[in-house]
Design a protein that fits this description.
Its EC number is 5.4.2.2. The protein has 547 residues and is an alpha/beta fold. The chain has 19 helices and 27 strands. A hairpin with a 2-residue loop joins strand 20 and strand 21. The longest helix has 16 residues. Bound molecules: 6-O-phosphono-alpha-D-glucopyranose (G6P) and zinc ion (ZN).
Length: 547
């Protein structure tokens, strides 16, 4: 069957952001939009010998438009000459599971269809991300090449074939392409069994341990049910909102204290389970809450780094750790004590890929509720819960006790992120530009709000593995006492601009450690507002979301 060559013209704006191309569903449904982007991906990543020996993995988070987009991607993969395709049943693959499948099957790469934690449905968001043969998101040089290819298109290739039945496991053919609909959970579950002691976790649940896992009607439902309830014997009902829905039940599938409010309230209530956890639309984020005790993602990374050796996969210790620049420095202190390197990367999981591939780090994480390890090349929500369960099973204590003993041993990095969503994009850009100019006038030793400035800059990263340099990764103001304010514009939104302000202060004083985080950071919040002129420029007095 010969490919159909459909003439097209470049569509501007196909520049992948922090994590792939994210747009409104309506944008993706515009004539040729999806096809143009897919063809740009194939053109950018096509090896000199073509795709004749290549396997492509395809799956998504089940959001609205997922199935149609997968049918288009399959036809175009076949028309572009891919030898094989593996697609998750019903079009589902969590992002970490897609990474695991790419690695387990030696695939050329994968297409992950997701807009992560953004809302779904016909008026919601959609997204596509290309991951390479290491299972990780394409690095900047590849996403730049995709953008360039999108501006050079004059046609795309497809086939005229009926839809593939995505509901039936097993092989299918599409032109010359040999496809297979696979169980989306199987490879991932096998990997988790190799990393963790499932017998020990079974005993934990048999002893009455209670977990509440909120899948937020997103992709982790089938994974969490198979792992926590079926394999580990947690009682039915442990997994809530476990059925993936195209509109996530009308909610934002973002596991934070705003969108996972019901879980948070339960965990703060009188009959709270031992561990509350949630994951996002595509299953790579995690929220961890103990009984009466929210664990910030930055702290979770530090606490897992300090305790990872309690799980079989990490029993021999960690090669190193990494965190994104805006993530708190709590993990740095653990690394220092363990005598291992700690890398500071820009926001975006793709920046961990080289460090993981080179064996320089074993564990990494971000303030944006992402934690992961070298088992895949994505952050991994269900994995993070399994690692927490492993630590709790080995230490036989509560989340609160782990947090308290951690802070007693290392001190505490009080940390919060204030998001100002849906700002006018021009206003936000002007704010950042003027703030950068203001910060550039500061010199080390200058005093601001009672603190001495150590440095202020626009964060740039030199990748120690491939020598690539990434600039413009966030404005930061760091004080001599370690306190920091960081300002960044989000790279994952689809409308307007979101300004993120990250605030942090370290303390080793027991009375200060016990303080409420927002109170502990109030002076820095006021200073951040004053420096950026946020209220005056935007008329906003309060952040839209505080995490
Ligand atoms: C996605 C990426 C993360 C990143 C997060 C926040 O989840 O995978 O690596 O930290 O987005 O990005 P943003 O640009 O919105 O702050
Ligand atoms: Zn996600």
């Amino acid at each position: 069957m010969s490919p159909i060559r459909v003439p097209t013209r470049p569509i501007p704006g196909m520049k992948p952001g922090t994590s792939g191309l994210r747009k409104r569903v309506q944008d993706f449904r515009a004539p040729h939009y999806l096809e143009n982007f897919l063809q740009a991906v194939f053109d950018a990543v096509r090896p000199p010998e073509g795709f004749g020996a290549a396997t492509l993995v395809i799956g998504g988070d089940g959001r609205y438009f997922n199935r149609e987009a997968i049918q288009t991607a399959l036809r175009m993969a076949a028309a572009n000459g891919f030898a094989r395709a593996l697609v998750g049943r019903d079009g589902l693959l969590s992002t970490p599971a897609a990474s695991a499948v790419i690695r387990a099957h030696g695939a050329f790469g994968g297409l992950i269809l997701s807009a992560s934690h953004n809302p779904g449905g016909p008026d919601g968001d959609f997204g596509i991300k290309f991951n390479g043969s290491n299972g990780g998101p394409a690095p900047e040089k590849v996403t730049d090449a995709i953008h360039a290819a999108s501006l050079a298109l004059d046609h795309y290739l497809t086939l005229d074939t009926p839809d593939v039945d995505l509901g039936r496991l097993g092989p299918f053919a599409l032109g010359e392409l040999q496809g297979e609909v696979i169980d989306p959970v199987a490879d991932y579950l096998a990997l988790m069994r190799r990393l963790f002691d499932f017998d020990a976790l079974q005993r934990l649940f048999a002893g009455g341990f209670r977990l509440a896992f909120d899948a937020m009607h997103a992709v982790t439902g089938p994974y969490a049910t198979a792992i926590f309830e079926q394999a580990l014997g947690a009682p039915p009902g442990t997994v809530r909102n476990g059925r993936p829905l195209p509109d996530f039940g009308g909610h934002h599938p973002d596991p934070n204290l705003v969108h996972a409010r019901a879980l948070y309230d339960e965990m703060m209530g009188p009959d709270a389970p031992d561990l509350g956890a949630a994951s996002d639309g595509d299953g790579d984020r995690n929220l961890i809450i103990g009984r009466g005790c929210f664990v910030s993602p930055s702290d979770s990374l530090a606490m897992l780094a300090a305790n990872a050796h309690l799980a079989p996969a990490y029993a021999r210790g960690l090669a190193g750790v990494a965190r994104s620049m805006p993530t708190s420095g709590a993990v740095d202190r653990v690394a220092a004590r363990l005598g291992i390197p700690c890398y500071e990367t820009p926001t975006g999981w793709k920046f961990f890929g080289n460090l993981l591939d080179a064996g320089r780090i074993t564990l990494c994480g971000e303030e944006s509720a992402g934690t992961g390890s070298d088992h895949v090349r994505e952050k991994d929500g269900v994995w993070a819960v399994l690692l927490w369960l492993s630590v709790l099973a080995a230490r036989r204590c509560s989340v609160t006790e782990i947090a308290r003993s951690h802070w007693a041993a290392y001190g505490r990095n009080h940390y919060t992120r204030h998001d100002h969503e849906d700002l006018d994009a021009d206003v936000a850009r002007a704010l950042m530009r003027d703030l950068a100019a203001r910060l550039a006038t500061l010199a080390p030793g200058d005093r601001l709000g009672g603190r001495a400035v150590r440095l202020s800059d626009d964060f740039a990263y030199l990748d120690p593995v491939d020598g690539s340099r990434s600039t413009g990764q966030g404005l930061r103001l760091v004080f001599e006492d370690g306190a920091r304010i960081v300002w960044r514009l989000s790279g994952t939104g689809t409308v307007g601009a979101t300004l993120r302000v990250y605030l942090e202060r370290y303390t080793a004083d027991p009375a200060d450690i016990a303080q409420d985080t927002q109170a502990a950071l109030a002076d820095l919040v006021a200073l951040a507002d004053e420096l950026s002129g946020l209220a005056a420029r935007t008329g906003r007095s309060e952040p839209s979301v505080i995490t």
